[in-house]
Amino acid sequence: MASRPRWVIASLLACTMSGWVSSEGVGAKERQPESNVPLSTILEFETTARLLAVLLDSGRNVINEHQVLFDEQDQTGKNFTTDLFERQLLEVFRSRSGIDLQEFEAARIPAEAKKLLKELVVASKHVVAEARAEVNRPGGGHKELIPAIFGARVATRFTERTHVRLKQTALAPRNPLNAPDAIERMALEAFADPSYPREKVISEVTAKSKSLSLMFPLYTTRKCLECHGDPKGEVDRTGYAREGLRLGQNAGAISVVIPIRP
Ligand code: HEC
Predict the structure, then answer these.
(1) To 5 degrees, how large is the angle CA 168–CA 191–CA 7?
(2) What is the rounded distance in angstroms from the CA atom of residue 59 to the CA atom of residue 85?
(3) How many C-beta atoms lie closer than 10 Å to residue 149's C-beta?
(4) Closest CA to 219 of 33, 44, 18
(5) Which distant-in-sequence residues (6+ apart) come within 8 Å of 186 by Cβ?
(6) Which residues, 6 or more positions from 128, have their beta carbon under 8 angstroms from its beta carbon?
(7) Is 252 left (phi over 0), alpha (psi -120 to 50) or beta?
């Protein structure tokens, strides 16, 4: 059954993550994929997918920290410039991945990853620039850019320009467009188990579709809880019912799908 999903643990990739524990997650088995693609190639694609997820999540976190600025009509545009966003984005990414995107020609990461990471920085900046223009328009537009909307806009733009699909998803999504498919659901269920190792990604190679899918778990910070925390069921400032999540709890995932060329 060539099309049956095969799970490969990205143990190599998880080693830069703090709190990495070497134990098996649900559905995550260490196996050779049933394709003729060499394991080294698969690991390269896995590295690329994980770095893209880290970069998208870094942007989400920078936006998350700047909610207040985006709320305040008068100062917003002046304070949160696209350059400031980029500096913070690169800094958060560097602290999480150990990779400096300003000097990464020399970094030991796949050439494809370099190209895609650059493209994702450009898409992220573009979305912030657009949001600033929206916020500054007199009397119109949204006054706030939230992480999920930022993430969705960046993902759309990035996917249009590359062959790589990015998506934010959760088991009980607010936006039906973010609903998980069967494979994403399996990973989300594994992440939802409190004993699941923190930040351990789950990836899978499907021989039939010739692609690598990677699920990168997201966790709540204090700011996320303003909308996703307690009191559960009470409407937040975006008009959705709060989920009652706790600090540090898994809040969903970023899903990455990269086509594999042997
Ligand atoms: C200002 C309120 C607000 C904050 C703060 C916020 N979110 Fe959300 N979140 C939302 C809204 C609204 C949506 C649905 C967006 C849409 O319509 O696509 C959403 C969607 C999501 C989704 C996609 C799945 C879904 O439910 O549609 C994830 C995952 C998520 N949020 C996680 C987080 C995390 C993690 C943080 C903190 C880093 C965070 N959110 C901060 C309001 C918020």
Answers:
(1) 90
(2) 8
(3) 18
(4) 18
(5) 26, 27
(6) 63, 80, 82, 85, 145, 150
(7) left
Rounded Cα distance between 138 and 154, Å, is 25
φ/ψ region of 234 (left if φ > 0, alpha if ψ in -120 to 50, else beta) reads beta
* Tokens 């910070």, located at residue: 221
* 29 C-beta neighbours (distance < 10 Å), count: 11
CB 223 within 8 A of CB 67: yes
For a pocket test of ligand 1, which of 69, 238, 256 has the largest count of ligand atoms closer than 8 A to its C-beta? 238
User: Is pLDDT of 183 > 70?
Assistant: yes
In this structure, which residue's CA is closest to atom 35 in ligand 1? 220
Task: Output the CA 6–ligand 1 centroid distance in Å.
Answer: 30
What is the position in ligand 1's atom list of the atom closest to the CA of 240? 12
Q: Is the pLDDT of residue 169 over 60?
A: yes
Question: Which residue owns the Cα nearest ligand 1 atom 15?
Answer: 148
Taking only the tens place, the pLDDT of each residue in 185-220 is: 999 999 999 999 999 999 999 877 789 999 999 999
> What is the spatial distance between Cα 118 and Cα 205, in angstroms, rounded to a whole number?
25
Q: Is 19 exposed, middle or buried (0-12, 13-18, 19+ CB in 10 A)?
A: exposed
